[in-house]
Amino acid sequence: MHGFTILRGDLIRGGLKKLPLLKYLPEQNHTHFAYAGTVFGSGGWALATACEELGYKCTLFIAKSKHTPDWVNDLTPHSCELVWCNPTPVEQIKSDIEQSHPDLHMLPLGFDDPSFINYTAQTLKELIPDPPNQIWLSALSGVLARAACLAFPETDIIAVSPVKHVGDCGRAKIIHAPEKFHHPAITLPPYPSCPYSCAKIWQFAHLQASQNAYIINVGYK
User: Fold this and answer.
1) What pLDDT digit, counting tens, does each position of 12-46 carry?
2) Which of 141, 155, 156, 179 allows an S-S link to 167, with CB 3.0 to 4.6 Å?
3) Cα–Cα distance, 197 to 9 (Å, whole number)
4) Residue spans in the chain of domains classed CATH 3.40.50.1100
């Protein structure tokens, strides 16, 4: 496709982030995890499917929105509880839950933890056996960007951010998408992709990506 390769996380139930979570969660010495997120991200779905496969439980605290993602209908009730929260920043939701539910093991926002980043880097190296000259990805917390930088130190990493204030992306070059975060991508890619994050890569990559570049498509729901 256009001389570059799409890493199809949309073909994985739970998306690409589920794969490093399957390695990361067992080392946490817990069997019930909590996570704060939004309907526009894929972290909650990744955690829910990983916990289901590992025999763990999770509680997702998700900010309400007019948009309801498809992955909500893919949650397994016996392993995942979904709690809708008032539409406040996820940082506030996480802080409130940590105070009101000290018994829950709350995972960091965006799974921003050195161990998870290392497992994500390992996953990327397994899925992309030869270092490409360029990788395009979406960046919110910056975790995926830092993992790509770690996995491929000689590769140019381009992070398209759907938010104004993006997290630490390491040495990645950051491009800000013109759409607001809660607005879907104007130019959709020719493959299933989350319209609020990964889909926003396409408007830049299909014109600017180099030959043999990779586009990381985390998921689509």
Assistant:
1) 999 999 999 999 999 999 999 999 999 988 899 99
2) 141
3) 13
4) 5-13+114-217, 18-111
